[in-house]
């Protein structure tokens, strides 16, 4: 055993000896624990339905410092308990190999008033505690019998099961093995502990064992293998720690892979992979902005919550929240606090813009993030969690409308709010920083994107791409139409980026039409405000104004589900202005509400998307149809890109399913009531990796995506639906 590890075993064993005399005087034990916490200046955790527990067992006492709290607090509580109980063993320097409880389930019994609590539950826990101490001290047949009886009577109580073995291990870590899910997972792997242990240990998903004789047999079998070539661990703590280290490694890799895959899917869905955009944040520098002057002078934005330590040590937001519940109030969920702290570490990035606020209606400054997350320790009232910020403005800008009360809030998506607040600083720059910032903010370095990259992602031929781009450049307005799954949304933004030559999201905007979308949303309209009604500009108006100020670059306005809106109502007088020969400042019309003379810049391109298989929608207005070109997107199963993708997955069943879908599409195209506009697209099968192509995945696509669509297509021909449903199912069997 490493002398620097497992220093806790001595104290944990001695504490058990000190607790045993309280078996018949538990009220005294509770009083003693309350005094320990009073001395620490801490509140005794809730251990029963009332603030003072009516009874307590020894394992729950161990649970006070073996749960999800900081290491500093664990050591503080253990030191106070050691002093109160007169323990002579050395205080631990580490907690390696110790399993911990969930903070929300940190007792070994149900609370008073809970029907699941038995009359003798806590007596039974003391009984098994006493029996394990006796057996650890003297392994006799009689002591084994007594332990087995006590174990069998106790393990069936509410909430115990495997949890009881955790308590047994805390008390005598060299005698009893912990069989929590982590240890069972680790020991069930032959490569980790050898075949003998893997065979006898229950599997990770197994139900708890209720037989004390079987449990002791497991302890004996594992102990006999310790130190062998197959199981090279010196003792149970060493084995338990190895399980912890390995599971943390595996979990970390798994989470990283899942997060990377999720981010890749999010970015790739609209073609924004690799694009780093500026984010905007609303930030309160201390309660009532009490730290604003200090933070401005130091060039930082900082958050408090010093008791939970370095935030980068927490693997998940939930881990952070649990730490907040323990160290601060558990009367609230702590979700907002955990979210703000997590965002400071993981979401705020250098280049992001920070708006400092006071209260809910005053902006007091602006800055740009220039550093990564830092943890800087200080005094009790110190704000240790920070990022370096180059503050560019300081002052007072009151606002009529209230904003979020939270300490840190991302406001990037609230474009009107960002535009309004940004306007406060257009003509005001702090004299102290004017030389340093040098005027305009640095231009983001967006990744290049060209025709070749487009063709590598979108399953379209080069000839089709050239035609599409030529038509759009000439007409300036185009509608991508096609059946479900042909990649209309996937293609739209990528098409814009390929024509721009760069992934600049500032020059692309996407909206989605629906039955409630109106002229007021698109161009301008009156909206309720505190003073009555205010005229607010819509998405397309704002976009055109931005494009007009940058007339040397192309701008793309993308409309998803264009045929779902009332187009005459939405476009209004813009029916004429969007025509390719009616663009520019010489072709102005007066807007309905503001009476402003408005034009659509010649560098604005409109890309609409329309689902040809949606029978619930009427045909496009002919006046609008004349102003758009229409480009059919068809299933790309035969394109070079899709064939390369398909071959890379190397799945016979997937190939069989795709062949079946191609045949199905031929039947759909020949159907006079359907036609090519109803063919099944390739998108249903995209975005998979080789390990994703499982029987379950393919069956799910067939059962929950393709067959329901066929039922809608041939709602009056159930025989045809059955024919193709059976064919699809056979292809994946």
How would you sum up this structure, described in words?
The protein is of the alpha/beta class and about 725 residues long. The chain folds into 4 domains: about 10-240, no CATH class; about 280-435, ph1033 like fold (Roll), CATH 3.10.590; about 450-630, 3-Layer(aba) Sandwich (Rossmann fold); about 640-730, no CATH class. The chain has 29 helices and 16 strands. The strands form 4 sheets. Strands 1, 2, 3, 4, 5, 6 and 7 form a 7-stranded mixed β-sheet that branches. A 5-stranded parallel β-sheet has the order 9-12-15-8-16, with helices on both faces. The chain is globular.
How is the topology of this model organized?
Elements lengths: L8 H11 L6 H15 L17 H6 L7 H14 L36 H17 L3 H14 L7 H10 L9 H7 L2 H4 L1 H6 L11 H14 L10 H35 L9 E4 L8 H7 L1 E4 L13 H11 L7 H12 L6 E6 L3 E8 L4 E2 L9 E14 L9 E3 L4 H9 L10 H4 L13 H7 L4 H14 L1 E6 L5 H13 L7 E5 L6 H4 L1 E6 L2 E6 L1 H10 L6 E6 L6 H5 L2 H4 L11 E2 L6 E2 L5 E8 L10 H4 L3 E4 L7 H10 L2 H19 L24 H19 L4 H14 L2
Helix pairs in contact: 2-4, 5-6, 8-12, 14-15, 27-29, 28-29
């Amino acid at each position: 055993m490493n002398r620097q590890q497992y220093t806790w075993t001595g104290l944990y064993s001695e504490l058990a000896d000190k607790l045993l005399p309280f078996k018949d005087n538990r009220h005294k034990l509770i009083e003693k624990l309350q005094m320990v916490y009073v001395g620490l200046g801490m509140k005794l955790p809730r251990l029963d339905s009332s603030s003072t527990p009516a009874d307590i067992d020894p394992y729950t006492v161990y649970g006070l410092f073996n749960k999800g709290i900081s290491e500093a607090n664990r050591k503080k509580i253990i030191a106070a308990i050691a002093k109160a109980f007169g323990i002579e063993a050395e205080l631990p320097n580490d907690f390696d190999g110790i399993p911990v409880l969930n903070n929300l389930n940190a007792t070994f019994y149900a609370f008073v008033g809970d029907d699941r609590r038995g009359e003798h539950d806590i007596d039974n826990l003391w009984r098994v505690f006493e029996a394990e101490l006796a057996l650890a001290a003297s392994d006799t047949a009689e002591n084994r019998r007594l332990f087995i009886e006590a174990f069998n009577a106790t393990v069936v109580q509410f909430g115990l099961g495997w949890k009881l073995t955790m308590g047994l291990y805390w008390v005598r870590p060299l005698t009893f093995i912990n069989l929590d899910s982590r240890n069972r997972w680790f020991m069930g792997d032959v490569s980790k502990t050898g075949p003998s242990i893997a065979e006898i240990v229950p599997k990770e998903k197994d139900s708890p064992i209720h037989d004390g004789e079987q449990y002791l047999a497991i302890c004996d079998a594992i102990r006999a293998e310790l130190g062998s070539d197959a199981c090279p661990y010196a003792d149970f703590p060493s084995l338990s720690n190895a399980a912890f280290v390995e599971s943390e490694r595996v979990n970390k890799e798994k989470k990283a892979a899942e997060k990377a895959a999720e981010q890749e899917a999010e970015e790739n869905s609209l073609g924004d992979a690799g694009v780093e955009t500026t984010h905007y944040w609303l930030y309160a520098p201390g309660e009532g902005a009490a730290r604003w002057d200090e933070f401005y002078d130091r060039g930082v934005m900082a958050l408090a919550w010093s008791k939970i330590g370095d935030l980068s040590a927490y693997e998940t937001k939930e881990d952070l929240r649990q730490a907040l519940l323990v160290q601060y109030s558990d009367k609230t969920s702590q979700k907002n606090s955990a979210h703000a702290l997590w965002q400071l570490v993981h979401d705020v990035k250098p280049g992001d813009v920070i708006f400092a606020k006071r209260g809910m209606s005053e902006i007091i400054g602006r800055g740009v993030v220039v550093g990564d997350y830092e943890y800087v320790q200080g005094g009790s009232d110190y704000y240790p969690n920070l990022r370096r910020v180059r503050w560019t403005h300081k002052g007072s800008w009151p606002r009529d409308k209230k904003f979020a009360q939270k300490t840190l809030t991302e406001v990037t998506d609230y474009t009107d709010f960002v535009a309004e607040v940004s306007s406060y600083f257009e003509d005001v720059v702090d004299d102290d920083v004017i030389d340093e910032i040098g005027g305009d903010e640095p231009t983001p370095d967006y990744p290049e994107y060209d025709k070749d990259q487009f063709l590598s992602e979108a399953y379209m031929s080069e000839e089709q791409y050239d035609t599409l781009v030529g038509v759009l450049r000439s007409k300036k307005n185009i509608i991508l139409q096609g059946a479900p799954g042909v990649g209309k949304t996937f293609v739209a933004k990528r098409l814009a980026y390929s024509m721009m030559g760069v992934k600049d999201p500032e020059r692309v905007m996407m909206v989605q039409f629906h039955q409630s979308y109106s002229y007021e949303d698109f161009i301008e309209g009156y909206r309720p405000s505190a003073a009555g009604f205010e005229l607010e500009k819509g998405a397309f108006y704002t976009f055109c104004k931005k494009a007009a100020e940058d007339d040397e670059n192309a701008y793309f306005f993308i409309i998803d589900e264009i045929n779902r809106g009332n187009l005459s109502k939405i476009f209004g007088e813009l029916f004429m202005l969007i025509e390719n020969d009616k663009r520019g400042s010489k072709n102005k019309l007066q807007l309905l509400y503001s009476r402003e003379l408005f034009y659509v810049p010649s560098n604005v391109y409109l890309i609409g998307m329309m689902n040809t298989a949606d029978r619930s929608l009427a045909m496009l207005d002919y006046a609008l149809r004349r102003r758009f070109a229409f480009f059919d997107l068809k299933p790309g199963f035969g394109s070079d890109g899709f064939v390369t993708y398909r071959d890379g997955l190397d799945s016979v069943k997937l190939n069989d399913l795709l062949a079946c879908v191609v045949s199905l599409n031929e039947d759909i195209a020949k159907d006079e009531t359907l036609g090519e506009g109803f063919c099944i697209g390739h998108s249903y099968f995209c975005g998979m990796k080789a390990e994703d192509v499982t029987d379950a995945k393919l069956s799910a696509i067939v059962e929950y995506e393709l067959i329901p669509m066929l039922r809608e297509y041939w709602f009056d021909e159930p025989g045809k639906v059955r024919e193709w449903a059976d064919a699809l199912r056979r292809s994946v069997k």
